[in-house]
Amino acid sequence: MKFWSNILRSIFLAVVLATSATASPFPASLRHTILQVREISPGVVVESFHPESSFETFGVNGIDHPLSARDEFDLKDATVSFIQSRLNIDADSIGFRTGFSSDVAQHAFIRQQINGIPVANAVANVAFNMANKVVSFGSSFVTTPSTVANVPSTSPSISVEDAITNAESALSGKFNEHPPTVEFVAKKDGSLALTHVVQIQNDTTGAWFEAFVDAHSGALVQLTDFVAKASYLVLPITKETLLEGFEVLTDPQNPAASPDGWHSDGTTNTTSTAGNNAVAFKGAQTNTTTESSVGLNFIFTQDPNAAPTTQANIDAARTNAFYIVNTVHDISYVYGFTEAGFNFQNNNFGKGGAGNDRVTISVQDSAGIDNADFATPPDGQSGRMRMFLWDLTNPERDGALENDIVTHENTHGISNRMTGGGTGRHGDLNMLNIGSCLQTNEAGGMGEGWSDAMAEWTEHKNATVVDFVLGQYVTNDSAGIRSHPYSTSATTNPLRYSSLQNLTEVHDIGEVWANMLHNVYAGLVGVHGFSDTAHTDPTTTGGNTVFLHLFLDAFTLQPCNPTFLTARDAWIQADANRFGGENFCTLWTEFASRGLGVNAAAHQDDSTVPAGC
Ligand SMILES: *[C@@H]1O[C@H](CO)[C@@H](O)[C@H](O)[C@H]1NC(C)=O
Ligand SMILES: *[C@@H]1O[C@H](CO)[C@@H](O)[C@H](O)[C@H]1NC(C)=O
Ligand SMILES: *[C@@H]1O[C@H](CO)[C@@H](O)[C@H](O)[C@H]1NC(C)=O
Ligand SMILES: *[C@@H]1O[C@H](CO)[C@@H](O)[C@H](O)[C@H]1NC(C)=O
Ligand SMILES: *[C@@H]1O[C@H](CO)[C@@H](O)[C@H](O)[C@H]1NC(C)=O
Ligand SMILES: *[C@@H]1O[C@H](CO)[C@@H](O)[C@H](O)[C@H]1NC(C)=O
Ligand SMILES: [Ca+2]
Ligand SMILES: [Ca+2]
Ligand SMILES: [Zn+2]
């Protein structure tokens, strides 16, 4: 039975000495994916088993639950009845923990309970669509008749004080006075342990644990390490609009790009939206009041029906902006925007470039409305991102929650630092820009185009190159904030090189460039396919990987104040440098398809490709 197999996949933890492997009731092949081994102190190793929860999804229409016929929908009742019927268990073993609704779904979070006591590592979550049908169900419940028969006494035989002493000693820290609880922990032999759950911290090392001490034997049977893992409730960077739904991401950092994670500069560790690459805050530029987390759990649920300035929504905004800027840091880092390439970091770990210039992200900045901006001073001074509120809807919407806007701004920092070698300028979504190597109208326009193209790149999910729209969430308009979607269809987007004849505004010019890059992207993906891991692995071979290499490589090749012609030539050269010219004809064909062919000049179209293409 499917449900029974969950037992074998649940989280279990045991303190064991060294790596003395005990016989495990799950296949050896699973060991690598469900075990995590952590050395707490020399010789003391905690082996933790991560659950592989079951997960089912039920499409656009969803499925019924036993109370579907009722006129009134109650999230808790519907959830309990659904799980009860799905898992064939008693209602009183289903502990409703919390629920909330987004614009598109209603979410319930449940903990299994036995004899009224929650099982710490047995949880479930159910989502309903707005028609109150079940659309997904995840579960790591462990109830079975045999485990229920083996439930230990629910009266602890050792005191909480003794449990604290044991935990303090095992974990080299002090109890932090957070109220202890009594919970069950499901163990790998299918039995349960009754535990005292206490928090232990060490101010010197920054360690912060939740320890589960067996309330009958006194042994440490499970551990949650708040510090080692960071979780963020965010809109994953591949999602284009908020309506696609927030997710909890755990440890999304790429160690190849951020070796000490996102909350450490190698010296100071934080549990807030402040770290080596970025600091996200609301307030004056001098008042970097960041979002604090519980441990490193940045779980702040945005309420779409409340003003963005409510506390929960500010917290959600700081968390999302921090996540996006760090993710863009990590992506661009592995493609070449490194310390030596003039990136934004406080500590450069001795790898060159000037440090002390992490991005400062001011969310809901009071300086503006319906926009966002990014100031790029030279290497060694922080890039300054300012995200504004948008007042086109009621309640207002927050640009920090629209990933493509945050990425657009962040990319100004990349194009400005990489073109001309570490110099900078100011860029925004809709206003005029000034700066050093992207100063001219045409270069500044391409600056806007690169920013849109990078935002688009992050949001591609597969080899299907769909049209791309920027800013549809903040405007609550499916057309977004540009004149046309970026598209391979010349009907959907007719912009060509010659369109520049009639354009002077940088964002208008940027659209022409971003649409050309969209076509280049489509051409490369058409030839090379799509790499799912391109965000973290620049050695993959998909067209999306090739595109981002050329995108960043061309920055450092192109001259100060590039034109469409010289920027195109930089791409062709970047391909020659990295791929031996493998994509020569693909690139020329795509540029030429929008008028930037071999004989294009002075904003006159040409569709010629080199001989042999
Ligand atoms: C915290 O950790 C340090 C370094 O390991 C250790 O010296 C100290 O005793 C610990 N503090 C407590 C309260 O155990
Ligand atoms: C800070 O965090 C880093 C990376 O997570 C870790 O290696 C280091 O031990 C931590 N330092 C302190 C003082 O806790
Ligand atoms: C600094 O931030 C805190 C918390 O967001 C806020 O209460 C305070 O008013 C801010 N101060 C300034 C000068 O902006
Ligand atoms: C967004 O637009 C839709 C349709 O135009 C409208 O029904 C909805 O109220 C708008 N949302 C907000 C928050 O303004
Ligand atoms: C590919 O991604 C697009 C969105 O970019 C999505 O609409 C489509 O369903 C995806 N196709 C597959 C096969 O996953
Ligand atoms: C520029 O605008 C004029 C006047 O609207 C129009 O006739 C012409 O076709 C435009 N040129 C291009 C290349 O779009
Ligand atoms: Ca968007
Ligand atoms: Ca730097
Ligand atoms: Zn811009």
From TrEMBL:
Note on how the cofactor is bound: Binds 1 zinc ion per subunit.
Annotated signal peptide: 1-23
Pfam annotation, one family: FTP
Subcellular location(s) of the protein: Secreted
Source taxon at top rank: Eukaryota
Region (Disordered): 253-273
UniProt cross-references to CDD domains, sorted A to Z: M36
Residues involved in Zn(2+) binding: H408, H412, E448
EC identifiers of the protein: 3.4.24.-
Broad enzyme group: hydrolase
CC annotations in GO: extracellular space
One example of a Gene Ontology biological process annotation: proteolysis
The FTP domain, residue ranges: 106-141
Active site: E409
GO molecular function: metalloendopeptidase activity; zinc ion binding
Cofactor: Zn(2+)
Record keywords: Hydrolase, Metal-binding, Metalloprotease, Protease, Secreted, Signal, Zinc, Zymogen
Homology family: Belongs to the peptidase M36 family.
Protein name, per record: Extracellular metalloproteinase
Gene source species: Dichomitus squalens
Lineage of producing organism: Eukaryota, Fungi, Dikarya, Basidiomycota, Agaricomycotina
